[in-house]
Structure formats: structure tokens, C-alpha cells
Design a protein that fits this description.
The chain is an alpha/beta fold. Helices cover 30% and strands 26% of the residues.
Length: 190
């Protein structure tokens, strides 16, 4: 766990400060609904997972902040896991869909996280990572502000995120959306 839990501190008012904008892009990029399970990795308060819970058999929120998961526990229909994304407590191929929204830049081990997301994804499944695009000036300013706040944030460009996944098997593509980018990763059925 981190030395200082910034997210536990902001958890009670996180959703009022950063509301969920829309669910349509998520449904499209994740290709929902799906019969299987969906993992919201680094899912915090479950604000995104709650909007998706009726589009998958089970929706699991994994987060390392106990404060954030306490907020998620207030939402119906979500399974919760106190876990770092660098070492997820699930068997290989556990999920049809894996989602990570605005969280990859907060993890200590981005490569390890990508490896875990890939590991828990079932063949034929899809990972969707939404991240602020650090190539834009606005996001560069956000990155600076997070450094000044002593957060361990490290932003990767969308091509750098895509490169975290096995280049010989993963099919990836990037969708730009203003200051954000969606990196969509598909795991083929072997």
C-alpha cells in the first residue's frame, strides 16, 4: 500500500468532484453487454463499475485504497477486491472484459499492471484503458500539479500504453477523445 493514501483522503467527495460523464463510450469500447465478468481495475469508488453492472454477469472493482472501496461498498451489485493492480488476486482468464479508467498513471508498476490485466483477461476478451493524453498541454499541466501534490503519477502516451502489451499477440488500437485517449486491447482466441 502507498505511504500516503491520497485517494482514501478524497474518497468521500470524489464522485462529486469528478462525476462520470457518459457511459456510451464505455459500452462501445468494451463491446458490452457481455455474458462474462468485468473487472474495473483501479476502480476506486465504483462510480464507473456501477454504471456497467447490468451489462455483465458480475462486475468486480479492484483498488488498493480502502477508503475508495468503502465508498464502492455502498453501491449495490458490485464485488470488491482490496488489491494493487500490479498483483491481482484472480486466476488467469477470469474476466471477459477489463477496464481501467483514469488510473494507470497512478500505479507504481505500469508494466506489471499491464501484464496482470492481460493475464486475467480471457482469450477473446478485451481490455479498455482510458487515460489523459499526456501529449496535450492541459494534461501536462495536470501531471505537474499531481507531482506537486506528491502523488506518484507517471503519465504514458497512448502509444506507450499500447506497447505495454505483447506485440506478437495483442491487437491494440487507440481512440482519441479530446484530452483523453482510449487504448483498446484484444486478446485473440488461440
Amino acid at each position: 500500500m502507498p505511504l500516503f493514501d491520497h485517494f482514501g483522503l478524497i474518497a468521500p467527495f470524489y464522485e462529486r468532484a469528478i462525476p462520470l460523464r457518459t457511459v456510451e463510450h464505455l459500452l462501445e469500447h468494451l463491446a458490452l453487454p457481455v455474458e462474462g465478468r468485468l473487472l474495473d481495475a483501479g476502480g476506486g469508488t465504483g462510480r464507473v463499475a456501477q454504471a456497467l453492472r447490468q451489462h455483465a454477469r458480475q462486475v468486480v472493482v479492484a483498488d488498493e485504497s480502502l477508503g475508495m472501496l468503502r465508498q464502492a461498498r455502498r453501491k449495490d451489485g458490485l464485488a470488491l477486491a482490496l488489491s494493487r493492480t500490479e498483483r491481482l488476486p484472480f486466476p488467469d482468464g477470469s474476466f471477459e472484459r477489463v477496464l481501467m479508467v483514469d488510473a494507470l498513471h497512478h500505479v507504481a508498476g505500469q508494466s506489471a499492471t499491464a501484464g496482470e490485466l492481460w493475464r486475467v483477461l480471457r482469450p477473446g476478451g478485451r481490455i479498455v484503458i482510458e487515460e489523459p493524453d499526456v501529449r496535450t498541454l492541459a494534461v501536462k499541466l495536470v501531471a505537474l500539479a499531481e507531482k506537486l501534490a506528491l502523488m506518484r503519477s507517471y503519465f504514458l502516451s497512448p502509444p506507450q500504453i499500447s506497447a505495454l502489451f505483447p506485440h506478437d499477440t495483442a491487437r491494440t488500437h487507440i481512440v482519441q477523445d479530446g484530452f483523453n485517449a482510449w487504448v483498446i486491447v484484444e486478446k485473440p482466441i488461440v
